[in-house]
Sequence to fold (842 residues):
Amino acid sequence: MSLAVVASRNDVPTIEIDSDRLLADMRALADFGKVGSGVHRRALGSVDMQARGWLADRMRAAGLAVEMDGVGNVIGRTPHARRILIGSHTDTVPNGGWLDGAMGVIYGLELARAFMAAGGGGEIGLEIVSFSDEEGCFAALLGSHSFVGEMDRDAMLDRVNEDGVRLADTLEAVGLADKAAARFDPAIHPAYLEAHIEQGPVLEAKGLPIGIVTTIVGVRGWKISFHGQADHAGTTPMAMRLDAGAALCDFAVRIAAFCRRESGTHTVWNGGDIRLIPGAHNVVPERADYIFSFRDPSAALLDRIAQEVERLSSVVAAEHGVTSEAGQIFAMAPAAMDETLMGLMRDAAEAEGAPSLDMPSGAGHDAMVLARHVPTGMLFIPSIAGRSHHVAEDSAPEDIVTGARVMARALTTLCRTIALP
Amino acid sequence: MSLAVVASRNDVPTIEIDSDRLLADMRALADFGKVGSGVHRRALGSVDMQARGWLADRMRAAGLAVEMDGVGNVIGRTPHARRILIGSHTDTVPNGGWLDGAMGVIYGLELARAFMAAGGGGEIGLEIVSFSDEEGCFAALLGSHSFVGEMDRDAMLDRVNEDGVRLADTLEAVGLADKAAARFDPAIHPAYLEAHIEQGPVLEAKGLPIGIVTTIVGVRGWKISFHGQADHAGTTPMAMRLDAGAALCDFAVRIAAFCRRESGTHTVWNGGDIRLIPGAHNVVPERADYIFSFRDPSAALLDRIAQEVERLSSVVAAEHGVTSEAGQIFAMAPAAMDETLMGLMRDAAEAEGAPSLDMPSGAGHDAMVLARHVPTGMLFIPSIAGRSHHVAEDSAPEDIVTGARVMARALTTLCRTIALP
Fold:
């Protein structure tokens, strides 16, 4: 699928952002839930709701019609029947960074404001969305799942946040329980654009200000459990042990070697969670749990690694005289970005004198949900030291501004050339 | 050092145990802190103190002079100026087994009772000890360390148990604060004997009722920490990661291979405690802590493994681009048992028709503390399925009785032949 374009329409204004206003709004939003240089703004909590109220006010002041929907999505629409979606999210992880999703939402606010200030002409307008609970306080990507109609609302209402409070009770408390969910409509929304910090070190390392996302990589998480026998670590001869921990370490080394051998350019994997039971230095581990996750733009490569996880865990268990279970605990399919939108942003970057890199996104974003339904484009700017989901997260102000200018230029072209739904 | 013996003295009675009385006392003691088929009797707690009171009463009833000393050691003495020490401990780990140290103490009670009932003649008597806090509620082997004079009492008084209560306050509460510590005296005590369940599977696997302990193995515990960098597990290319967890698993596999290659017959090792920080599946581990312990009768072999732990942890860290620290966190030297006492018990087992196995003890015991000061002998009986430190711990009653008979026969010979101090 690639977005169709038509000849240029001359009634669409050139969108030119105001960089001071952009940065000022970004900093104003960061005051909600400020924690040192970072932000703690958990979805649908009181601070997050205040921030949503502030955002709604800013949207109204920009001339947008604003709705806060039944899951907390904040949506600002220009007065056009057809609208390009631009969004991201304003909630954060606990003690997170000030940019993360907030930058993409304020980009949207500034783009719509500039568009309206320039007359807002033409047949296509903009719809700016701050998706609710991208970070999974109740459920990851809650707002975008709801928006595209992939959410079972009744099942979702029983989900609880880290304080054990149900989503249903939370929505009731913040006055959203009786509101409808806003919905994506292909007859209204021809494209979705999202800007985000990279959250990784690649652009900084290469000295490039813009990343054009090619694919949001797919991810698989597997839990591998080895079951042995707890024995006294002094009195049990080595030949009589069934050591689940030794099996886990052996598996970890060998699955990493497989991935190294078989991986593509963008394959990554991680074994960040190891639990030994009982976990005492003087007891042979009777059980060892390992979470192994791996990501790649190619679903076929993810399949091949998953098969090896299953095969190798059995082989290693047998060699150690223990048993194993291996099962997938989470999975997201790779989401390809739209070639036309990639090209528009690549050209816009070049025109802004900002060299760009085509790159996959190793992290998930609302764009991966939208991409299943609508041509989607995504732009990255560099993260200082690649840090994110941390109060130290930051980007250079000039990179923030450059990203917004590239978005403005690409959006202007898109509004002038996109085939109307 | 080997114990000197003299020609047989005819005034020493033959010690013959009463197996029903032995088992009845063992079961009576197991009622203090009973948890299902096991026992929860933490040192110097109220249940442990009740058990100590019961033991003191049984010792008195056997004709012994009883003392409970300033750390809770319960000591029963026959009226002889020189006395062979027989002991173990009656405290347990949390939800432990009913035999563990209790069996060796009740063996001592029954042996002294039989000895006194048979006239208690001769120049050498018995001194039965239940050492306090062998299991380390406050400090492992507290009672035996105190008894041999290796304990800094003032430093020890500030130690706290799992409830955070200081030893000083505990001793005050149970009325022992002002009591003196009973002390080993080479002019009084020519030998120490301890019986214990094996706490391992070897005797059962070989179908042998008696183990003659040759050495209590030495143990070394090392903590190896790898320091890398926390990064997003999706957005950081593999080549830019500093993965402390991958280094740990690699080290664990390679140190085990070294031990397998270099080990002696009795070498054992364990990596039962792994901690990854932050321990999340989607974050590259920035730190990984590993506790690696190893045991062997030979201090030289322990030295060789320790050197390799240090060398290999640096090598592995460098290969993974991370840093490492490795340091010894605990160590106990191997303790050789006395050859003469081993021979006496071996001969006694043969005379009882009970085949025996010379074997090291992979677990620590009060005997390892006593062995630094006095010729020490230790006897094992089989543990069902090798289980210990668990409510399921058990031994066959006939094995318990056989062990006591072998001890009685060895002790009779010892009393008749030992050179008086």
Q: What stands out?
A: The first strand of chain B starts at residue 34 and ends at 35. The longest helix of chain B spans residues 299-320.
